Amino acid sequence: MMHSTHYSLTIITLLLLIVSTTHAKTPNLASQFLIPQNAARHAVGLRPLVWDTNLAHYAQWYANQRVHDCALEHSDGPYGENIFWGSGTGWKPAQAVSSWVEEFQWYNYWHNSCAYGQMCGHYTQIVWGATRRVGCASVTCTDNQGVFITCNYFPPGNYYGERPY
């Protein structure tokens, strides 16, 4: 029961951090992506990710490839990658990260698997223990197709049969 209470408090703290970064006045772009991801990593005892401008440039390059179709497709690049699409405009980095982190509820650490029919790979990439660096970007797609957001990670994670941490 003690573990469950501690876990619940950690998740509440994580969600408060995500909400607070969404409403912050003008944090820089890197912080908007880093703070909620590092809160998720902290919740499972991992050291924080650091911002990598080369990864951010790669993410921006790929986001620019999606500006005309906003297709939710991976880049097939050499990095770990999380992608997000939202309809309309005005999507904030913390909202995309929150959608990835919320997948924690579907991840079973002891079985190292997602709940049947659910996704949890975005979450496990964020909390992949060997991953140290991240860079992210977003574009508003043409013709009101929405917003495309991507983060790239190095070293990449989500190796089959390995636990994230």
UniProtKB/TrEMBL annotation:
One annotated GO biological process: defense response to other organism
Cleaved signal peptide residues: 1-24
GO cellular component: extracellular region
Keyword Disulfide bond: yes
SUPFAM superfamilies the UniProt entry points to: PR-1-like
Start and end residues of each SCP domain: 28-161
Alphabetic keyword roster: Disulfide bond, Pathogenesis-related protein, Plant defense, Signal
Family recorded in the similarity comment: Belongs to the CRISP family.
Biological role stated in the UniProt entry: Probably involved in the defense reaction of plants against pathogens.
Entry protein name: SCP domain-containing protein
